Amino acid sequence: MNSPDDGKGRPSPARPSLFLERQGYRRRRLADAARLLPFLGAALLALPLLWPDESESESAEALSLSSAMFYIFACWGILILISVVFGIAARRMAARENAEPGAESWRR
Amino acid sequence: MSRKVLLIEDEPNITEAIRFLLTREGWQVETHAEGTDAVQVILSAQPDLVILDVMLPGKSGMDVLRDLREHEEMKALPVLMLTARGQSRDREMAEQAGVSRFMTKPFSNAEVLTAVRDLHAQASQS
Amino acid sequence: MATLNVLILVCLGYVVLLFGVAFAADRVAARGGGKWLRSPLIYTLSLSIYCTAWTFYGAVGNAARSGLEFVTIYLGPTLVMISWWWGLRKLVRIGRSQRVTSIADLISSRYGKSNTLAVCVTILAVLGGTPYIALQLQSITLSFSIFAEADPTGLYREGSSVFWVAAGLAVFAILFGTRNLDANERHHGVVTAIALESVVKLFALLAVGIFVVWGVAGGLGPMMDQIDASEIGQWHVDAGRWTTFIFLSAAAFVCLPRMFQVMVVENDDEGHLRTAAWAFPLYLLLMSLFVVPIAVVGLDLMPEGSNPDLFVLTVPLSLGNDWLAMLSFIGGFSSATSMVIVTAMALSTMVSNHLVMPIWLNTQEGTASVSGDVRTIVLMARRVSIAVIMALGYFYYSLSGGGAALASIGLVAFAGISQILPALVGGLFWRGATRTGALVGLSVGFFLWIYTLLLPGMEGGIIPASVIENGPFGWGWLRPQALFGIEGIDPMVHTVMWSLSLNTIAFCVASMLSFPSPLERLQGAQFVNVFDHSVSARGWTGSVAQSEDLMIMTQRILGTIPAQEFFQAEAERQNGRPGRLPEPTPQFLERLERELSGSVGAATAHAMIGQIVGGASVSVEDLLAVADESAQMLEYSSQLEAKSAELSRTARQLREANAKLTQVSKQKDAFLSQVSHELRTPMTSIRAFSEILRDAEGLSAEEQTRYAAIIHDESLRLTRLLDDLLDLSVLESGQVSLNMDDATLNEVLDRAVSSALAGSDRKIGVRRVRANERIPLYTDLDRLGQVFINLISNAQKYCDADEPVLTISAHDVGGQMVIDFIDNGSGIPTEAQSLVFEKFARVGSDKAGGAGLGLAICREIMQRLGGEVAYLPGHAGAAFRVSLPLAYRQAAQ
Predict the structure, then answer these.
(1) pTM of the model
(2) C360-418, pLDDT tens digit by residue?
(3) What does C4-24 look like in DSSP terms, one character per residue?
(4) How confident is the model at residue A92 (pLDDT cuts 50, 70, 90)?
(5) Is the Protein biosynthesis keyword given for this protein (chain C) (predicted)?
(6) Structural domain of residue B92, as residue ranges?
């Protein structure tokens, strides 16, 4: 007659599950952000296509190459920085996951 | 010299008719109405002749005859078989079982008497 | 001025250093040490083989020609890296869990281990890779020649130097790339060496850049001014090329065999991707940071017509900075060598696994599976492949003469290898992708790439100029560089657009139209749902683990007891140890597979055993997925089966009808025989006694009376029999007409009891509860009464009790009127109960009754009246139950 113990007798299962739920929620949002990052990058890198081109009109002020370089490298840097932040967050998540081996199971 | 006939027939009226006929001819008539123990009855009664109905309660006359012929001393016993079904297949089966004479109901009294006389005469000669 | 000799010495020294590093790293790894060898840093640096000599030298050349366009080649990989979470992570996870050895292996594995696909990918990779290797050789030669021009001693001979470079690289790749076979034991030596080379090339380029900006231009501000003032100083980028190249470089970054090698095959830890996701873009950013300044300064300093591809080298050289030039040379050398080594390794794996080994195994006709030297054969095949690939590169270089601009060959190779992309991405994310789809898509893309880019681009014209201008056979819409009449697009953009879009469309359509094999579907599920079951890749450490897993799987499929018996028998057969698990020998596996295929089919059994023995685990979900899809197939074939079942059902019905007819005919015979018997018996008595009365003399008066009475009785019996037969025949034929009338049950019973008992000398006692019998009836009262009379007179005839009593009780049971007739006799024996309603059935030897048709007639009557009569078992005496639906009663109300 130990079946009732299996379900209810465990010490306070409610609180860790809440904790896991929140952690899982955070992790999902983090994954969402990670999925969006390449789209942000693509958008930023497609922006130069809208710039005035020297060949299109001689009179219009074509963008100088130094400014263009500045823009592109700045975008690049921003993407790298976001990626760093995400990498650190993901590492923390992974560390926590390893500490609690059961955490993987509820995800599915 | 008393001649004994054993009549195995389940229809009481027919039994009565045959008994009447054969008694008048000087036969000692014993009757039996069951198929199941018919062979034992024949063995113990030691009749000179047996009249056997086919449709008997418990055991068919065919089986009774077949079992009877298993016994060595009964191989030559004259058996007159009576049947009410009258199909040719029955006649064949009866002949295979070792019948001496086969008659289909209804029969005339003269036929029965002739058959009994013939069978008895044959048995006495041999 | 550095002499060529010094340069060669430095080169040799550098190569020796690389050998040393690779050797040391291999030894450290073999001893199980060297945690840093498996660090994310090394992983990131090894990824930088993406930056070949083409990028090292060519990026500056490209910038000098087209401004910022060169940066697209770096932006594509950057986008891929920052989307690692849903892209590379999956690729790496699959690569590890499936023990993939190359991109060709991955594609083939995904599509049901199809070797045809693997061969296609391999050919594509070799075709794209060979010019690329030639390009690296060319860059080394060109850089040599720069120094040779400056060296008055002039001992330099171009051809021989290329040969020795190629030979040296081949030796390096063979030594460190083919030491071991298992893809799990990674090439730490090579990876560490190329990581070192990455540092060297980055350092060299940064050094040149810093020298140019601060040493030549005089600081950041002046540099910017100089850039804006230069001939490339204004933003000018072709939109089509910009987006196409970003996309193309992203695709190539994933598909290039060498990138796949370092990114997936050599990956030690999936977590390294987290670091590489930002570190590798950073590396790329640093690599491209000074490209434009170097180009601008080069354009400014160098004489008109000098090769901008070599500015990295010639600018420091012209400014007299020999050591910087030397460093730059080493940087370029590093780029070239690391790329060549890894490419040769990756391609050789593909060639040996998918081209050489299948052919070799075929020629061996099965003996190979027995002999133990397959391992050495594979290694030998790889070594030879490396040599052949290097030789191909060398010949390509010698034949082409190295005229074309560096960047264009690189892009052509990119466009070629990117044709794998639809099959790869589709395979990772779409379970419906099939082998046929992958083959068709790949072929379409491959063909278009050759037709629109590779052939027209070849100097000397394999395609005649007329074809390029007017299309084949004068069909304008098939012009290689203006398909479907769309002109004016950059050839590169044109090729990428058409080949990849048609490739994708062909892939999708063919996938949807074709149907995958079970193995394909299993692999598809494993790939697409890789995160659902492989928490982390793990190898099967020992053979016992395999046996255990095989046991578990077998139990699931065969059931516990048969599986245990099978394994025990096997263990006994192996070495008489029935208590332990058997070793997974080939013979055992073969037997097991045969055993399993009896349950799940050959292909699935093969796949399942392969999965376990091959090292990856199959989750139950995957098997279920396959089972689901098999069920759909079954459904289709079950429709066919249903039709054939219908046919056999019809046949069976015919057989049954025939059997029934035969039975009916037999029954008819039996019936006639019975009727004959029942007629002949009374006739016999009648004839016999009438003859007696006629012939016999001296009969007493009693005898005469008695015999006449017998004749009379038997005549009555005959009449009754004929009546019954006629009655039954009318009832059975359904031609009976019912005289429906109103009455109550007790009236009918009263009449029946009195007529049944009339004229009988030994009356049976009848017990009734009249209060219950006030049930109104609307039925054929005479017929119902006939049934009652029959039952009562039967009881009267057959009840063998000393004081016979018949109890008649009527009640209402579940909407039916039920009348039970139970007597206190000994009843009917159980075995006879089922027979009493049959015609001529008589229980016991009592001849008192009629012909045995009474109950049969009762049954027929009750059927006509809508009710039934049945024997009621479980009572001491004979018990019959007559039931009639109440609906018949209600109809009267």
Answers:
(1) 0.57
(2) 766 655 443 434 455 667 777 888 888 888 888 888 777 765 555 445 677 888 888 88
(3) HHHHHHHHHHHHHHHHHHHHH
(4) confident
(5) no
(6) 3-125
**Beta strand segments in C789-860, E:** 805-813, 816-823
Question: Is some CB atom of chain B closer than 8 A to the CB atom of C770?
Answer: no
The answer to whether residue C573 neighbours chain B at the CB level (below 8 Å) is: no
pLDDT at C631: 57
CATH of the domain at B63: 3.40.50.2300
State the Cα–Cα distance between residues C453 and C498, nearest whole angstrom. 11
C282/A80 CB distance under 8 A: yes
Number of neighbouring beta carbons within 10 Å of residue C6: 14
Residues of C in contact with B108 (CB under 8 A): 687, 691
Q: Predicted confidence band at A4 (pLDDT cuts at 50, 70, 90)?
A: very low
Q: Report how far residue C765's alpha carbon sits from residue C634's, in angstroms, rounded to the nearest whole number.
A: 69
Question: Which residue on chain C is closest to A31 by alpha carbon?
Answer: C85
User: Which two three-digit tokens encode residue C675?
Assistant: 């009727």
Q: Residue B6: its pLDDT value, please? A: 92
Residues C15, C197: contact at Cβ < 8 Å? Answer: no
* Spans of all domains in chain A: 16-48+63-107
pLDDT in tens, C655-699: 888 887 887 777 777 777 778 888 888 888 899 899 888 888 888
| Whole-number pLDDT of residue B7 | 92
What ipTM is given for this predicted complex? 0.91
Please report, as a single letter, which amino acid is at residue A12.
S
Residue C233 and residue A104: Cβ atoms within 8 Å? no
Please, is C531 exposed, middle or buried when counting C-beta atoms within 10 Å of its C-beta (0-12, 13-18, 19+)? middle
Whether the CB-CB separation of C442 and C508 falls below 8 Å is answered with: no
Contacts of C86 in chain A (CB under 8 A): 34-35
Q: What percent of chain C has pLDDT over 90?
A: 0
Q: How far is C266 from chain A (nearest CA, A)?
A: 21
Query: Taking 70 as the threshold, does the pLDDT of residue C348 lie above it?
Result: yes
pLDDT band for position C606 (cuts 50, 70, 90):
low
Task: Please indicate whether chains A and B are in contact, defined as at least 3 beta carbon pairs under 8 Å.
Answer: no
Task: Give the model's confidence band at C627: pLDDT under 50 very low, under 70 low, under 90 confident, else very high.
Answer: low
Domains: count for chain B: 1
Nearest to C684 among B12, B33, B106 (CB): B106
Per-residue pLDDT for C263 more than 50?
Answer: yes
Instruction: Say whether residue C347 is in contact with chain A using an 8 A CB cutoff.
Output: no
Q: Do the two chains B and C touch, given a threshold of 8 Å on CB pairs and at least 3 pairs?
A: yes
Residues composing chain A: 108
In sequence order, what are the beta bridge partners of C823? C806
Share of chain C above pLDDT 70, in %: 78
Per-residue confidence (pLDDT) for residue C538, from 0 to 100: 33
Would you say C889 and C817 are in contact if contact means Cβ atoms under 8 Å apart? Answer: yes
Domains defined along chain C, listed by start: 4-401 (1.20.1730.10), 408-536 (no CATH), 539-618 (no CATH), 642-726 (1.10.287.130), 737-890 (3.30.565.10)
Q: Do C282 and A53 touch (CB under 8 A)?
A: no
Question: Both ends of chain C: CA-CA distance in Å?
Answer: 133
Q: What is the rounded distance in angstroms from the CA atom of residue C279 to the CA atom of residue C285?
A: 10
For residues C337, C339, C340, C341, the Cα torsion angle rounded to the nearest 10 degrees is 80
Own/partner long-range contacts of C757-762 (Cβ < 8 Å, ≥24 apart): C757/C792, C757/C796, C760/C796, C762/C796, C762/C804
The better pLDDT of the pair A57, B5 is held by B5
Contact assessment for residue C843 and residue C836, using Cβ atoms and an 8 Å cutoff = yes
Q: Cβ distance C410 to C131 under 8 Å?
A: no
Nearest to B84 among C676, C689, C710 (CB): C676
Q: Which amino acid is at C723?
A: D
